[in-house]
Amino acid sequence: MKKITTLFSLALVALLALNAQAQESMLGKEMKDLPKMKDANNKGKKASFADFKDAKGFVLVFTCNHCPFSVAYEDRLIALDKKFKSKGYPVIAVNPNDPAQYPSDGYKAMVSRAKNKGFTFPYLLDPTSNVARAYKASRTPHVYILQKQGQKYKIVYVGAIDDSARDESKISEKYVETAIANLLKGKKPSKNYTRAIGCSIKMRNQ
């Protein structure tokens, strides 16, 4: 039994390492605009990066309704959007989860959540989970900061929002806030990768 437990632990560590490598490999990649997706925070109108004409980049976050980590970060995402949207880095939230696995992640529930929390940013439905797959996202929340470069968007940060997923009062490093502050000064993020903490994304079947 002990041997089986040890093998399982080693396999889990290897899997986590592979996931980390996949996500870190996204740094520096140039992405196309998002496909137009239904915005639960704007009466179902479809939206993408192109709707933000004056944006210098984006804080793209894969999130959902049911995950306690996502819920814990909602107020912090609102604060980030309010602080940086006017400076050119708005938040865009995307829900890639399969509602067949978690009904509370369905579109109608997204509409209710956006309204009840007072989201200040788009909350988009990824109906195939293919946007999450394209970014190799694995957690909710999982953040990607993108810098606009012509018609493409370069990934300059991947990972967590800060270093205290459960308790906002214990934050010592605000990864996303610091990265955007660097970008606004014309510098590269001083830290461009951290490990995202959260629930696994419940991908839809392809």
Automatic annotation (TrEMBL):
GO terms for molecular function: antioxidant activity; isomerase activity; oxidoreductase activity. The keyword Oxidoreductase does not apply. PROSITE patterns: THIOREDOXIN_2 (PS51352). Residues 25-181 form the Thioredoxin domain. CDD domains: PRX_like1. The keyword Transmembrane does not apply. Residues 1-22 form the signal peptide. It comes from the Bacteria. Keywords: Isomerase, Signal. InterPro entries: AhpC/TSA, PRX-like1, Thioredoxin-like_sf, Thioredoxin_domain. This is Thiol-disulfide isomerase/thioredoxin. It comes from Microscilla marina ATCC 23134.
